[in-house]
Amino acid sequence: MRFIILLFLPCFLMAQTEEQTYELIQIKSNFEIRYYPPVMMAEYNSQGGSSSGFGSLFRYISGSNVSETKINMTTPVHTEKHEKGNIMAFVLPKKFNLETTPIPKENKVSVYQAQGGYYASIQYSGFTSTSKEKKYTTVLMQNLKEEGIKTTGSPRVLVYDAPYRFINRRNEISIPIIWTPR
User: DSSP 3-state helix, strand, coil percentages of the chain (rounded to 5)?
Assistant: First the structure.
């Protein structure tokens, strides 16, 4: 009986996690065009350091902020890789805005309101890895080129599942695009 409870506990916990909202605009052959509304984000920029920032961001939502407010975890976790460092960002729950978002204690954690915008996203399963991220970024970029859709920024990896979830994992590559609603 204990095994069954442990087996289904991650599914129950993940079902309670708020997910970043978006509007599905169009489904293409193997990717989607989405509109993401503005949302509050907590971000860690490694700027050449070796830390992913997860620990700092987790401490922030666990109450390591000026008001000592505990913040519920949301999905997905955003990561962006650059030559000079990496960025990891947590989406904050919808109830937060510019006035109500707690101020971080750690100077490498910043909070901001991400602008809304159009994105092309391609989904893949399993645990993410550098090789999968490169593969799906290449596939998505090729599809965008074939469709004549211009990008406006860097690809981001979106990870929806906790590390202890082993099956039915959801990851995406998401790239900001220029999109004119029809």
Answer: 20, 35, 45
